[in-house]
Amino acid sequence: MAKTLYDKIWENHEIKREEDGTSLIYIDRHLVHEVTSPQAFEGLRLAKREIRQLSKVLSVADHNTPTHTLSLDDCNDSSKIQLETLNKNAKEFNLRYYPLGDKNNGVCHVVAPEKGFVLPGATLVCGDSHTATHGAFGAIAFGIGTSEVEHVFATQTLRQKPVKNMRITIDGTLEKAVTAKDIALFVISQIGTAGGTGYAIEFAGSGIESLSMEQRMTLCNMGIEGGARVAIVAPDQTTFDYLKDKPLSPKGENWEKAVAFWKSLHTDTGAKFDKEYTWKASEILPQVTWGTSPEDCINVTQSIPKVDNPTKERALKYVGLNGGDKIAGTPINWVFIGSCTNGRIEDFRSASQILKGKKVAPNVRAIAVPGSGLVKEQAEKEGLDVIFKNAGFEWRLPGCSMCLAMNPDFANPEERVASTSNRNFEGRQGYLSRTHLMNPAMAAAAAIEGKIADARQYL
Prior knowledge:
Shape: globular
Strand content: 15-25%
Distance between the termini: 48 Å
Largest sheet: 5 strands, parallel
Radius of gyration: 21 Å
Number of strands: 19
Strand order of the largest sheet: 5-4-3-6-7
């Protein structure tokens, strides 16, 4: 029987299936950060349990870390407590851990792939919804709750029901200044933020196969914003080249065996999907959100829609915009380039092409936050930090930063942010702040002009 990639990996990890359809599955990898882990560690203490397989766990301080200093004293009280608690728990349980100040620190979903922690055909979980990022490697990766974090710590297993299969095919070549971020936002604008609920989305087609691993991670990262539990891309030579010689990747003869197995990880011809969508890459232009949901999205040449339902009317009122107005030209106060969506080296290269020799508009505060210490180091080797700083950006330490404002980086009420992050919910980047999601080149163009602008004019 022909099988989808998702079904193949699920069946490889299924230990037992109950009568109600729930599976007990084995978990290969577990990512941990400071926000969703404290209660899980305390549960282990109370039950006098240890972590079952320490080698399967990687812990990173990221959500609350400051990006302008290495001192926890500059955090608010709750952030400082969470970070100090993870420091304590990591030491007590002898975890592989990258704290604030470690050269390997950064956003967990950027750090883990750099280390070769996630491999094709694996299952990976984390107490964070954007765990879907790691599906870019041909893995089943998804976010879990705190009680599930404890369960994986103690048993290296999880009870879950398998989801249905959806395939989204993008064929053709993307235009200049159009990226995986735009594919994701375009797809979400078409299917809605609930369109993928109950599904694993497999992204396929020539437009996906041509993407780099960084771009594939961006795409799968945003899968959760379309409601999907899992987003996945079949592994190929691009995947293998990225993973080769990573610290935790297989070595020597084991590498050859691994690649031979990974090549079998694809959807079989004739496999049935529960739902399918197909678009041409040429249909996708640089995208910008206008409301308070990722589905509130149009291309940069379009006008904000005139809405006729209370939810969207509230969204327009919150962001202070009017239906019928052009989205291009909307003034901004902030630019944020970073996050687990767009904090990788390619993202800073893309933005630097726009910024080189130019200056940030005087009314804009702009921050560039590498997704990891290794990204920061690579960018500085290439001189990208100089381009950003000469343009007027603040070049920061790695961390989640302004993506979710659980740290000192946030916008003030009614300030408008051109952001490369993943969510534009009310208050996401600061109390009553207003967020417009876009790709890094678009954010750089907005920084220069002081308003939402089309990056294609700079290329």
